[in-house]
Batch of 2 targets.
Target 1
Amino acid sequence: MSLADASTFTRRLDDLGVAVAAGPPEECATMVEAAAGEPAVGVPLGRSGPDGLADSPARLPDRVETEPTTTDLRAAHTGVTAASLGVAEYGSVALEADPAGTEPVSLFVDRHVVVLREADIVPDMPDAFDWLGPRARDESVDVVFATGPSATADMGGLVHGAHGPKEVHVVLLRDDGATDGSDAADAAEGVQ
Amino acid sequence: MSSDAEAGASDAAGAGDPDRETKAERIRELLATEGDAVAENTRGFNEGRYESTGRLDDYEALKEEARAVKEDAIERLPDLIDEVRETVEANGGTVYLADDAADANRYVREVAADRGAERAVKSKSMTSEEIEVNAALEADDVDVVETDLGEWVLQLADEEPSHIVAPAIHKSREAIAELFAERFDPDDPPETAEELTMFARERLGDLIEGADLGMTGANFVAADSGTMLLVTSEGNARKTVTATDTHVAVAGVEKLVPTVEEFSPFVELIGRSGTGQDVTSYISTLTPPVDSPVPDFGSDQEPLADGSDADRDFHLVLIDNGRLAMRDDETLRETLYCIRCSACSNACGNFQSVGGHAFGGETYSGGIATGWEAGIEGLDVAAEFNDLCTGCSRCVPACPVGIDIPWINTAVRDRINRGETDPSQLDWAFEELVPDEEPGGLDLGTRLVGNYATLAKWGHKTAPIANRLADAGPVRALAERVAGIDRRRELPEFARESLVEWFDARGGPAVPADEATREAVVYPDTATNYVDVARGKATVRALEALGVRVRVPDLPGSGRPPLSQGMVATAEAAAEDLYAGLAPHLDAGRDVVVIEPSDLATFRREYERFLPSESSERLADASYDAMEYVFGLLENGADPAGLRAPSEGTGPVASGKRIAYHPHCQARTVEVGEYATATFERLGYDVRVSDTECCGMAGSFGYKTDYYELSVDVGEPLREQFGDTDRTVVAPGTSCTEQLDALLDAAPRHPIEVIAPRG
């Protein structure tokens, strides 16, 4: 990731109508609080997205139900999950269909709030597939590259929220303390 | 919705070929009922493609990369099938290689029965349409629900897709609102696009929650990992997979690529090429069975994710259904590179007017459908719509994997010609006019067009009689009845003195060899030599004014007309004859200047299939579009003062300065369309260029009774752009000028006639 990637990524999200909040991991809960509607369900950070998120100071606000039942999911306005990767040129986020339920929580809701570490932004699509290839072969991961909200033009005009979320918000965790060669999660710890 | 379709078609116009009338009636019906909606959508997609691919820095390199992946994958296909079987099974899934549709359906029915499935939800998949799996499952009392909104609309309306990516583009918002009101009788009927979408989302959401089996297609499958890629925007494929514990993916064997990393160029190209989106909302890259917990919508107190491994089944059904035979077929093999993006449909003038209900077969539609339907269903099905490819070639630069779609159409047309000969036709009466290499009994209209070079020569020799005859009512009626040439079209009027005769009578080359900057042959193509001699004379004058020593030798036709009729052997013989005629000039280092863009396109695109590569490359390198040549001369220091600059002044005089230019479709494909614009601007003209892909005339297409109305409809955007202009209308293609004349009453000229010094 470079600063240029983060700014390209943010610009693309803006083009897609996706709201972005950026700040240090410590402010994650505050940013999610502002982005999430009511009621909200979610998947704990680290169980959703990169493992390193579990060790980061980033948290979800208490009002986000992180052990939802299907009833909670159905009733939810907002789903909060992490993303494993961002693709700068496209404004895409990589969501893993993991056992913790990132896929249904990001899908069966009106608003999806995505938590992404700035360090996990790659410049372009080939980088994303270079990342995916080994993980698909070795770990059989299931990944959805989501770009903006769900959309259809089948009903005589462009409408958001055909089956999936009508809106997407991205919470970008800055890693100001990142130093060369260090893991982004370690860097986030260093900030503390 | 289509209750009035097909009504009262055949009893209208009296005698004639019944097939021909049915086809014309069907097209007329579609133009009236679906044409506007299809045109608006496809033209929007096509503009979006230009914008979205224009944002890529490396579009051509990406296309080449995608093409290389497909070439490699199809070459290694049997190995990839073995490999994906191993990887999917290692992941805990099953692979079934189905020989044909019945075999695939039998397997899917077994899976559904083993699961005890009562409802299957599906995301959009053309391959599932191809095998008609819905009907197979419904026969077993499985409720099948299409969850793509467009597909669901069609399922409710009991209609077929009109487009491979946006299946319901032929239906207006009003028609969908009416359909929902009729089918569901809601208290508050949805009307706006937003309301209709939310209505569908809720209904389908409930149906998905109660489903047992999820069916998807696959856009690509990576053999190295068993990862499948799905390109979607709505999120229905995600829900289909997530909400059900049994996932069946059906995919043609050609969807296999070697590795996950090779997905990348396709992800960047498929949305841009199709609907003009840089990327669609969701690119699912699943290595099933997927890891998501199965939400138990029936038991609402269970936690969504209880920490246990998901209990999911996955079946990848790979479909052969003719594909492995296509792989061994030199002509059809390239079809297997198709990624079903729909660019060839959206870029196609005819498709824009009638959509896939006319321009399509059992399953697939658009230009590439000829390859698919010929390979999967057979020549009979391809023959029903293959005529609608006019060879305009605008799909060629649009195709993200560089398939020569017009060539597939031509080669399949050739097979149809050879398979469908009717020996009862009165060929003996026309033997001299149709000296081709084709089997006797070939449709007469096809042969007359295919032998246009001979016909034109005969018309020129007997010009006063031929022209008078051509205008005579009874002759036109006969031509319409026997050869299908529509009497509403004006026929070209043959010249009494050909270009070659004029040049010889004038005394041959006018620029002395020792004063010449270059030497060139102006190719007297059939249309220029025998019909539109004025543009030939103008070309000679313009080049001479720029110091070129010009010759106009007597040379045979290029083979473009027979090629357009699928008469490949005849076209090949023409290529050989013409090359033999040009070879001494090429040996002498002369350039070949071509006035008719379709002939230049033939030299540059198709001759490589007919001539030894050394010869075709030599001709392609030495030949120039007339305006390209003028532009090159000016760039190399020729004095523009010899050419005609625009008149200064106001009022009618000034209109001569203002040009409306329609570049020829094939000229744009071989990238010479812009030289006229550049030359005009350099000389001080003000040029407005049409953005219409093809004028709709497309050589002989617009003359044919079946297609007259369609041809006029395709040209309609040109009327909208240029209809009330006071600009001087120019077009380099002969058939474009005929079409523009009919549409605008403008008597357009070749661009070179505007800039050439007066004769």
Target 2
Amino acid sequence: MPPMKPVLPKDAKSVTDLPLRLRNFLARYPPEIHSAAVRRPDFSKLSAELSEEKASGEVPSPYTPDRDAKGSAGLEKGAWTPSKALLITTTELRNPFLPNKRYGKWEAPRYGLRQQADLMKLAIKYGAEGLLPPSQKSTEYKETRRAERGLAIKGTGVGQKVKGHKWERTMESRLEERRKAMEGMPELVRLWKQRGHGRGWKQWPKR
Amino acid sequence: MAKKAKSRTIAVRLISMAMTGYYRTMIRPRVHRPLSMMKYDPVIKKQVLFLEATKGGKNK
């Protein structure tokens, strides 16, 4: 994919209309190199792959086969998520908003989360969010993350499920067992009557 | 010392064969054959077969 050129916001006629703080930042980290639009050349491909993966992999049934079975665990800790894909950047140019591993050591982000948030809020106010590098504070990241995690209610996010009560989780299998038993009931009663109403009965149930 | 005499009757559990988990408790003489009868199961709202189940499932 050819690198997109970051577009200046419509209401701001030029970069000079932006507040000084933003201008300083953009001077140090020019959007042509660092902005989110430029730095994520492979994201569309990635997201396509991710969505394909999601479409092919079926969501497991929340019901467990019986009362003693354990429910399956949710997403793994280190699992790949769309929000993580948003923060992928090339290693040659370090993103000032993200920690960076260099010479075998981790470097802290040049701009801390609070400064990032301030810059992002300023940029959003002036409609220049697209000029900033990928950040945890960007609207896109926050929206993706919210979709993943759900509305802060456990189990409502993408790929999550509500655990529910045990009687809910085992309901499917229990109803199935009951249905099968009722299907065989007339035959069972016939046999029982045939064997003298229990006189010759051998298969007594266990308690 | 002599063992304590066993009671003449025992309480038994009759389990619904509809696999609803519903059961009835009845009292029968110890020497009697195991109980089995058609009874109403309120879970499926039908008369079904109830069979006696004892601990360990040992019936004569």
